[in-house]
Amino acid sequence: MKLLGLDYGDSKVGLAIGSTDSKVASPFKILKNVGRNNLFAELKSLCAKEKIEKIIIGMPINKKSPDQAERVSDFITELKEQLNIEVEIQDEQFTTVQASKLINNSKKNDDDIAAMLILQSYFDKN
C-alpha cells in the first residue's frame, strides 16, 4: 500500500511518500499553502496519480501551541471529506527540528523532510 506523509503548515505543506512493502519514507515535495481549495485540489490530483491509499499527517501533540493543533485538526476533518482517503494522525513532535538538523539548519526547505520523518515514524511503529 502506498502512503502519503503530510506536514501541514500555514504557509507550506511538506509531503513524503512511502510504501508498506518497503516501510521506507522519502521526501516528495513541498506545496505552497495558498488556500485550502487549491491545496485540496493539488492533493486530490497527487493522490490519484501516485495511487495513495492512506495519508499520515503530523499532529502537534504535547506542544504548547494549541492553536496549531486546532488548525491541523480542522484541516484533517476537511481533508477526510474532500479526498475520501483514510487519514491517520502521527505525533510530529520535534520533526521540524530534526529536519532542520538533517539539512544543516536551513529551515527554508525542511517541510518535506519533516513529512518524511512523520511517515517514517509511522512505519517504525507499525
How much is the radius of gyration in Å?
Answer: 13 Å
Widest beta sheet: strand line-up: 3-2-1-4-5
Task: Tell the overall outline.
Answer: globular
| C-alpha termini separation | 13 Å
Number of domains: 1
CATH C-level: Alpha Beta
Task: Count every helix, treating DSSP H or I runs of 4 or more residues as helices.
Answer: 4
**Based on helices, strands and strand pairing, what is the structural class?**
alpha/beta
The biggest sheet, with number of strands, parallel, antiparallel or mixed sense and barrel status, is: 5 strands, mixed
The level of helicity is 40-55%
Q: What's the CATH architecture?
A: 2-Layer Sandwich
Strand content: 25-35%
At the fourth CATH level, what is the homologous superfamily?
Answer: YqgF/RNase H-like domain
Number of strands: 5
What is the CATH topology?
A: Nucleotidyltransferase, domain 5
The stretches of 5 or more residues where confidence is low (pLDDT under 50) are none
Mean pLDDT: 87
